[in-house]
Design goal:
Blueprint lengths: L1 E2 L6 H11 L8 E6 L5 E6 L2 H12 L4 H8 L4 H18 L1 H11 L1
Antiparallel strand pairs: 1-2, 2-3
Length: 106
C-alpha cells in the first residue's frame, strides 16, 4: 500500500470537501492512500463538536436546546439516535413541527 503525508491549507481542505460533497471543519485532517489493488481511498478526520455544528447548520437545527441535547453525545451513532428521537418527539407534539422536521430531513 502506497501512502503519503501532505500538509493541507484551509483552501485545500475546502476543495476536497467540495469534491466529496461535504463541508469539512477548519483544520480537518485528510488522509489518502492507494491500496495494493490500486484503488484510491480517502478518510477525513476532524473535531467531533465542529462536525456536529456543521451538521446542525446543514440540517437546519436552529433551537439552542436541540443543539445542546445533540452535543451531549460523543459518537455519530448516538447523535443519529438522539436526532431520530428528537424528530419523533417534535412530530408527536405539533403538526407544524412535523412539517419542519420532515423538511429538514430532505
Amino acid at each position: 500500500m502506497a501512502s503519503g503525508v501532505f500538509a493541507l491549507d484551509d483552501e485545500d481542505v475546502e476543495a476536497i470537501g467540495d469534491e466529496l460533497g461535504l463541508v469539512l471543519p477548519p483544520g480537518a485532517r485528510v488522509e489518502a492512500w492507494r491500496t495494493y489493488g490500486g484503488d484510491l481511498e480517502l478518510r477525513a478526520l476532524g473535531d467531533f463538536a465542529e462536525i456536529l455544528e456543521i451538521a446542525c447548520n446543514e440540517a437546519g437545527v436552529d433551537h439552542k436546546g436541540d443543539r445542546a441535547a445533540l452535543a451531549e453525545h460523543t459518537t455519530s451513532q448516538d447523535v443519529v439516535a438522539a436526532a431520530a428521537a428528537l424528530v419523533k418527539d417534535l412530530t408527536a407534539k405539533s403538526p407544524q413541527a412535523r412539517t419542519s422536521a420532515g423538511s429538514r430531513r430532505s
